[in-house]
Amino acid sequence: MRDKARSLKIMYLLPELNVGGVETHVLAMSEGMRKAGHEAIVVSNGGALLPRLEASGVRHITLPIHKKSPAAVRKMAGAVRAIALEEGVDIVHAHSRVPAWVAHFASKGLRSAFIITAHGQYAPHLGSSVMTKGDRIICVSEVIREHMRESLGADPAKMRVVYNGIDIEAAELSVANRRPGSEVRAELGIPESAPVIGSVGRLTIAKGFRFLLEAFRRLRERMPEARALIVGDGPMNKELSQLAAELGVADRVVFTGVRTDVYDLLGAMDAYVVSSVFEGFPMGCLEAMAARVPIAATNVGGIPEMLEDGRAALLVEPKNPEALADAARRLLEDRRFAEGVASQAREDLENQFSQRKMLDDTLGIYCEALREKRGYVGPVAGAPTADKPRALLTLPELRVGGVETHVIDLAVGLKEKGYIPLVVSFGGKLVEKLEAAGIEHVKMPVHVKSPIPIFKMVGPMRQIIEDRRIELVHAHSRVPAWICSLALRGCGSRRIPFVTTCHSTYSVHAGSRVMVGSDGMLAVSEYVRRHMLEHFGPNPDDIRTVHNGVSPDIYDESREEEIRNRYRAELGISPSSKVVGMVASLTPRKGYHHLVGASAAVLKENPDTVFLGVGGGPQLDELEKQARELGVSERFRFLGVRNDVRDLLCLFDIFTLASASEGLPYVILEAMCMKRAIVTTDVGGIPEALEHENNGLLVKPGDVAQLAGGINRLLADEALARRIAAAARQTVINSFTVSRMVDKTEETYRKLLA
User: pLDDT at position 367, please?
Assistant: First the structure.
């Protein structure tokens, strides 16, 4: 008999309860945990939001834990420790640095798990070091996670990304019951017909309101009747009011101060504008998304993880008032476009940034930390392990490759979220990596393509599904998909969702149709998705793009010089030589013969360059012969299959891929993540990750001259190479992380399991 699920007692610490993103976050967490059956206690110095907290039934204890002096911190630590002991607190969860220091000292020797949420970036000094000391560190965006690792040295194993979320049902109710926009405008002295931009936030330097005012001045040159509505308070209040007067817009800008009727105010706005120079993951944007107000925002912090440029918002570079004004004007003038991006943002909110998801993910982290602290703690009410299923992931083999990396990363990510993953394949050298992560593997010959072996595997696969009480099956590749599809037909009345992931394009024949016969189809790129729609005709709503992702942690810049020197010595490459590398199988589709051809032209201009090819395949003899005939064999070396690809990438000054076709290759994402300057072909899903001259150079497939020209250009212009390399890594952090891939995959799981 299973143990009865227990509730947790959670103590939240933050400086004050005044209006702001951190405060709103803590209110949502504490209210949500209480509704889930847990007891939440909030400790702060109080503030304007205290009545709302207490009205929700959450207990509050007033303590001056906002005071920054060491003596005050020590004193408050004693008080918090006493409360934790008396109340039997399971989780001490701190938000902001001073409360984190209090919690750090208070939790020493306690059985309580110590959790920290990093809401923003912190200056790398001793006072910030406490943000790395939690049993788990929750980051509100991938950008924050990366900052914590690079600037503060936080342990990647302790960090988890949990996006902020809002109560969508409550937001819908607030929107439905808000005062008419005309009434709010009349109260604020704004004409009903005037176009209105607005923003909500603390009046601080980080929020960039001075750029908003400068943008508004430019906007008024084209739209004289426009008004600006700025909601919030802070240390720059007087300065911004003065700036509005200096810019000649004071009579058109309304500073409301702190307000609690945010949805009423959003109803008075035609466009929501974010001018921040840095952001974590702004709650104001989530509220605007809920209210279906179109957004123009700066492309900083976690914003691009929340809003896709051109699809769910318009994003511009920070500190650029002209670009911000142009974006705002487009939203005000092109209402059809504005309604489209607002609608898409609202859909993304439901799928990715709900309060329910935020609570589920956080509760899973609580349980994980408690298990590590105490060992077995029994089932916890509402915890992911109680709700989330046993998922079977299957692929042909577990040898080195993109599909294999994807499945392992997905399985590990699902396990962290509380799922119980089981992987079925024919095995390979990566089984050891999978099992080291605590994930079970079952060896079956699901790689053999002939019909008889496929039918022979149907029964054993069905037995695994039944015996392990599998609740969702996810196939990666056609043969495993056929086996699973047939196996599921014999599982009786039990409904088991079937998911397929298309990692590349498929030949158009009956054998490929199994990939579109599932309950949920995923594609690793828009290119692959379009191919499946065009050639196999599934319902467009039934196939979703989930890009491959890599962990930002694979790159440790502090080790790069040491690694480069080691490999140069090992391979006999002089310190002065530039290295151009390609990692791919030696097959015609990968285009190595084009790179060998291009190397001859590159070496004429840059004779000290070394070319390295990493990978094995049937073309080796042919390629070596080509290199000899072109007279480049001494400068073009083939290293064969390697297990140290990520370290080798540190050796490359330029990474290139000359493929004729691709889905979305992992090695491209790895090279981007590791800040390599990239020249690659404009094929498949590659241009979804790389934009020409922004974060890479794209060339036509098969165009040897163009490929050589791109390499020569980067060799000659080191500043360009550094710029696009840095932009490439930022692109990965914003849009192509493992956690994002896992989250989007799980969204499909959730819909099918609902």
Answer: 87
Among 549, 575, 596, the domain-final residue is: 549
- Both 584 and 664 in one domain: the answer is yes
- The neighbouring-strand residues paired with 95 are 117
Q: Is residue 325 part of a domain?
A: yes
Pair 309, 186 in one domain:
yes
Cα 92 to Cα 134: distance, rounded to the nearest angstrom: 10
Is the Cα torsion angle 334, 337, 343, 347 positive or negative in sign? negative
CA distance 223 to 338: 17
Both 152 and 175 in a single domain? no
Residue 643's pLDDT is what? 83
pLDDT for res 567: 95
- Assess whether pLDDT exceeds 50 at residue 17: yes
Three-state SS annotation for 24-73 = HHHHHHHHHHHHCCCEEEEEECCCCCHHHHHHCCCEEEECCCCCCCHHHH
Between vectors from CA 469 to CA 464 and to CA 470, what angle results, nearest 5°?
75
Is the pLDDT confidence value at 2 over 50? Answer: no
Are 530 and 585 in a shared domain?
no
Residues in the chain: 754
Q: Is residue 742 part of a domain?
A: no
Number of domains in the chain: 4
Q: How far apart are the C-alpha atoms of 159 and 135, rounded to whole Å?
A: 9
Sorted by sequence, the CB contacts under 8 Å of residue 4 that are 6+ apart come out as 379
Q: Which residues sit opposite 425 in a β-bridge?
A: 443
- 15: domain CATH number is 3.40.50.2000
Tell me which DSSP letter residue 20 carries: S
Residues 14 and 144 in one domain: yes
Three-state secondary structure call for residue 9: strand
288 and 396 within one domain:
no
**419-454 confidence digits (pLDDT tens):** 889 999 999 989 999 988 889 999 999 999 999 999
For 690, phi then psi, to 5°, come to -115, 130
Helices (H), 223-271: 237-246, 262-266
For residue 1, pLDDT beyond 50:
no
pTM exceeding 0.85: no
Q: Which domain holds residue 345?
A: 168-350
Helix axis angle for 335-352 and 321-333, nearest 10°, is: 100
| Helical H segments across 127-269, by residue range | 142-152, 168-177, 181-188, 209-222, 237-246, 262-266
Tens-place pLDDT, residues 212-264: 999 999 999 999 999 999 999 999 999 999 999 999 999 999 999 988 899 99
Task: Please report the pLDDT score of residue 384 as a whole number.
Answer: 54
Give yes or no: residues 414 and 524 share one domain.
yes
Question: DSSP string spanning 586-654?
Answer: SSGGGTHHHHHHHHHHHHHH-TT-EEEEE---TTHHHHHHHHHHTT-TTTEEEEES-S-HHHHHHH-SE
Q: How far is CA 419 from the centre of its chain?
A: 19
Closest by CA to 246, choosing from 273, 221, 210, 277, is 210
Give the integer Cα–Cα distance in Å for 22 and 368: 23
Beta carbons of 139 and 145 less than 8 angstroms apart: yes
Q: Which alpha helices (DSSP H) does 489-617 contain, by range?
A: 526-536, 560-571, 592-605
Q: For residue 648, is it left (φ>0), alpha (ψ between -120 and 50) or beta? A: alpha
On whether residue 753 sits in a domain, the answer given is no
Cα separation, 475 vs 130, whole angstroms: 43
- Residue position matching structure tokens 């058109």: 252
CB atoms within 10 A of CB 607: 9
Residue 137 has phi, psi (to 5 degrees) of -120, 115
Tokens coding 303? 């914003």
Say whether both 610 and 507 belong to one domain: no
Let me know if residue 380 belongs to a domain: no
Residue after which a domain boundary falls, among 161, 193, 222: 161
Mean pLDDT of 3-28: 88
Task: Collect all residues with Cβ–Cβ distance below 8 Å to 144 and sequence separation of at least 6.
Answer: 118, 119, 120, 121, 161, 280, 281, 301, 302
